[in-house]
């Protein structure tokens, strides 16, 4: 039995199937962990969503929510503010089983802890001031909101936005929920106090530091309180393959003509396939 952590799918269903063939995926014994962003921008978001949902309901897969998954939930709820020309969500929204898919998606977690290995999975990252136990509790706060009957209003009117970008234990209400959501689904750079910086998406120099800046990749801070666990994550396609600082990146840019990656937890080994480019990177 193997557990494979698979990077952002974003609708790249054919590449996923090719990767599963490459790793000799055993349906009856292997477990697949998906780091979120199952949908959007790629050509087969509906197929990806249905495939992961079926596996999860069979007990053969787990996934966490990514920012593009939140984007799909918002689109279904009628929130038009962040609609983009690059979205490829319409096939899902027009599907006969869309209500069932959305209901399943909003019940997925923001963070998963492995029952055996000292490993957790998130989509984007963890602020340095959160311990693993603290992060799991914060994830549950937002998960509870998404699973309420009034989730559409909650999501559309309260969970989107960049403020506040600085964590304080005294944060309450929607400000608290919004920071937690952004940390789990959008984090790349922050300072030592967990102040989030959203503008920069490129890789840091030397894959670890930004000279003369207080904002660094979230995982490099020496006093980070979640270093006692391995953390597997996606989201940051420009980062490349990182296996250091007790973190392992899995979004290796399949959508942009890079690779799709499966990281095997048992052997700490990477598998990948080369992908055809589905989207043109935006110019800086």
Write structural notes for this entry:
The protein is α/β, with parallel strands linked by helices. The protein has a single domain, classed as Purple Acid Phosphatase, chain A, domain 2. The chain is about 30% helix and about 15% strand. The chain is built from 8 helices and 13 strands. The strands form 3 sheets. It has a 5-stranded mixed sheet with strand order 3-2-1-12-13. A hairpin with a 5-residue loop joins β6 (about 190) and β7. α6 crosses α8 (about 175-185). The mean pLDDT is about 95.
SSE order and pairing:
Elements: E1 3-6, H1 13-22, E2 31-34, H2 45-57, E3 61-63, H3 67-76, H4 90-93, H5 98-105, E4 111-113, E5 119-122, H6 132-146, H7 151-159, H8 173-186, E6 189-190, E7 196-197, E8 216-217, E9 230-233, E10 243-244, E11 247-249, E12 259-264, E13 269-274
Parallel strand pairs: 1-2, 2-3, 5-9, 9-11
Antiparallel strand pairs: 1-12, 4-5, 6-7, 6-8, 10-11, 12-13
């Amino acid at each position: 039995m193997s557990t494979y952590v698979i990077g952002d799918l974003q609708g790249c269903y054919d590449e996923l199937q090719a990767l599963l063939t490459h790793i000799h995926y055993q349906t009856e014994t292997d477990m697949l962990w998906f780091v979120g962003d199952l949908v959007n921008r790629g050509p087969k978001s509906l197929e990806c969503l249905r495939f992961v949902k079926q596996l999860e309901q069979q007990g053969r897969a787990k996934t966490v929510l990514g920012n593009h998954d939140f984007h799909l939930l918002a689109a279904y709820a009628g929130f038009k503010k962040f609609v983009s020309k690059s979205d490829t969500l319409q096939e899902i929204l027009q599907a006969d089983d869309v209500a069932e898919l959305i209901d399943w998606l909003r019940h997925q977690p923001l963070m998963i802890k492995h029952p055996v290995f000292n490993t957790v999975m998130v989509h984007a990252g963890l602020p340095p001031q959160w311990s693993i136990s603290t992060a799991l509790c914060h994830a549950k706060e937002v998960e509870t909101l998404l699973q309420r009957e009034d989730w559409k209003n909650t999501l559309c009117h309260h969970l989107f936005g960049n403020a506040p970008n600085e964590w304080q234990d005294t944060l309450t209400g929607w400000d608290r929920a919004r920071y937690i959501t952004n940390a789990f689904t959008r984090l790349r750079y922050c300072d030592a106090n967990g102040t989030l910086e959203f503008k920069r998406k490129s890789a840091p120099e030397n894959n670890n530091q930004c000279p003369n800046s207080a904002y660094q990749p979230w995982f490099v801070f020496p006093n980070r309180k979640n270093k006692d666990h391995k953390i597997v994550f996606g989201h940051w396609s420009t980062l490349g393959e990182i296996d250091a600082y007790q973190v392992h990146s899995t979004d290796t840019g399949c959508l942009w003509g890079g690779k799709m990656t499966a990281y095997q937890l048992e052997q700490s080994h990477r598998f990948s396939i080369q992908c055809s480019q589905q989207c043109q990177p935006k110019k800086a």
